[in-house]
Amino acid sequence: MKPRLNIVTLGVKNLKKTSKFYQNALEWKPTKDSDDKIVFFAQGGIVLGLYPLDELAKDAEVSPERYGFSGVTCAINLDSKEAVDKLYHSIIAKGGKSLVEPRETFWGGYDCYFADPDGHTWEIAWAPFWKFDKQGSLIME
User: How far is Cα 15 from Cα 33, in angstroms, rounded to an integer?
Assistant: First the structure.
């Protein structure tokens, strides 16, 4: 079997509100498999799922309590510094919480961080050495 990351599911407190955030701030469209209990956004081979936090915790048999940084970030990788700036400012204007404003990085790139309505941490990044395929997926070998 070839291992593959297919779905990242975020537990959310208010599915409708958080789904609207991703639709408005990132202009992502829910897939036809979405409904009032779960929302999916197809992202070039990986799917982002949104599911009620309490139900996700119950399914995984863990506590739904969250404190501080979870140790996980999701990332959107873009092809220019200008694209990072543009997306970051658009997301903040549409309800995202600014965590780190766009900046030059220690690793030679450019990034920033924001949080969604549930506090999930997202990075938007550019690196001069990254390449993308025709679908916009990051190529790393």
Answer: 15
In DSSP terms, 111 is beta-bridged to 103, 125
Contact by Cβ (8 Å): 64, 54: yes
This prediction's pTM = 0.89
Q: Which CATH number fits domain 1-61: 1.20.1640.10, 3.40.50.410, 3.10.180.10, 3.50.50.60?
A: 3.10.180.10
Other C-beta atoms lying within 10 Å of the C-beta of residue 139? 8
| Each residue's pLDDT tens digit, 31-81 | 999 999 999 999 988 999 999 999 999 999 999 998 888 889 999 999 999
